[in-house]
Amino acid sequence: MAEALSEEQIEAGLTGLAGWSTDGRKIERTYAIPHVPGAAFIMHIAAIQDDLGHHSEVTLGYRRVHVTISSSDLGGFVAEHDIELARRIEAAAEGHGAR
Asked: Using one digit for the tens of pLDDT, what is the confidence trace for 34-86?
């Protein structure tokens, strides 16, 4: 079973993931991206989530996509697989023009 990470561990895990932040209970990022490419980016995120068997909250807004990740099985705290999901999303972002 996954274990909740400390805020220091989360911050260390986010090193190199520009734009991602934490409040100690979740990690999140807002990407600047036009609406239709943003919808395609969300579909890519959904495929990554299915591949990992782990899901996050993703919202499409005006010229933005916002991602919030935590583990419901840990009471809404962050585990290593949440950091891995963020890494995979970040790797996909550039291909969609998300900044």
From this structure: 999 999 999 999 999 999 988 899 999 999 999 999 998 888 899 999 999 99
Which residues sit opposite 77 in a β-bridge? Answer: 71
**Those residues with Cβ within 8 angstroms of residue 40's Cβ, 6 or more apart along the chain or in another chain:** 96
Structure tokens at 59: 């919202």
In angstroms, the CA 78 to CA 31 distance is: 20
Tell me the two tokens of residue 77: 């705290």
pLDDT in tens, 6-27: 999 999 999 999 999 999 999 9
3-state secondary structure the chain: CCCCCCHHHHHHHCCCCCCCEECCCCEEEEEECCHHHHHHHHHHHHHHHHHHCCCCEEEEECCEEEEEECEHHHCCECCHHHHHHHHHHHHHHHHHCCC
